[in-house]
Write a structure and sequence with these properties.
Elements (H helix, E strand, L loop, with lengths): L2 H7 L2 H10 L10 H16 L5 H21 L1 H4 L5 E4 H10 L6 H21 L6 E4 L5 H18 L5 H7 L2 H8 L1 E4 L2 E4 L1 H8 L23 H21 L7 H18 L8 H10 L1 H4 L12 H12 L6 H6 L4 H15 L3 H7 L6
Parallel strand pairs: 1-2
Antiparallel strand pairs: 3-4
Helix pairs in contact: 1-3, 3-4, 4-6, 4-7, 7-8, 8-10, 12-13, 13-14, 16-18
Length: about 350
Amino acid sequence: MKQGKASQIKKIKHQRTKHRFTEKKKLSDFNFDEFVGFLRARYFLTRHDKFAPETYEVASFFLDDVLASMVQQNFSKFTSNERVIVNLNEVMQATLVNSDDRDWRYFILLLPALYDLQKFLAQEGSVNDRFGVASANFDINFWRMIIRTVVALNYFRFQGKDVTELMNSSNAIDELQFKFLKVNGDDDDFDLNTIDEVFRGVTVKMAPLKLADAEALAPVLTADEVDSEIQYAEKRLPQFQESSIKGVVSENVLKMLSAYHLGLAQKYQAVHSQWTAPLIETFTTHDLMNYWTPQWDNLDGIGGEVSKYVTFLGQKKALTNSQDLVSKLDGLSHYIDVLALNTLLANLKLSQVQELGQVKES
């Protein structure tokens, strides 16, 4: 769980009371972190137990992306004395199109949560006097078409194609998205068997980490030295958990951080005092998923715990130059988040994707 989400949960009742009873002559100043943190916290409190874990995690990722896109598109209005009316259909479409580093199953699992997400933003966003939404009637077949198109776009993106040029020069994307369609009465369902077959052997293309080019250190660590590193992790990780906001450092986080201790020692001959940004990014890119099996539990933001843990080790004098190291881990948090999500999605059976992608009548 992101720390912003955890801390905001405690503030929600106070914020709602303040919003209800405090009269203001002009619109309040816009604070991006508070606004987004509030919505993340409310989504966790109201939706975490409403959806299957897989659906909730996917929807939580998408909510974060929508909020970032929404504020980015309207930042000048948010930071002036204006009330912003956000066109949710436009923002959500743009967010889907820009989701170019996700496994195709992400979009199928997201569909059942889209309408609820629109309702959530309209209801919960009203706590901020700068925020309002506009959206057309929700047409499930329209969103299925958008998702089929995005999945088709990503198929070509993952193969290094210039999709803008492709759209201008051929009908390949339209033809592929139509291939993903299975008409079922009035519903334009997904042909999951065809999508699965088309993507077989295709690897999701993620933006690479810039420093992921480290070599293993020398000399090779002995078995006793590796064992000593594991023992160190077993001592420090509970301390890190205790020092953090309750609920942020879950078992999922602890197992991930433990994987860094073990994997960097075994594969790169580096104990914690020797960690560098290139070593961390190289291990993350090539080896993390061999040492850590993520769970469907608060994945959004889990990657940020690596930098926090490095900072913690620096505070314990166990790692020198920790601040400089953290400053070089640009993009690591997002990379780990999406890598873990994509790994779990790819491990779902097609029957599970079919079940989780069903849109139930509300």
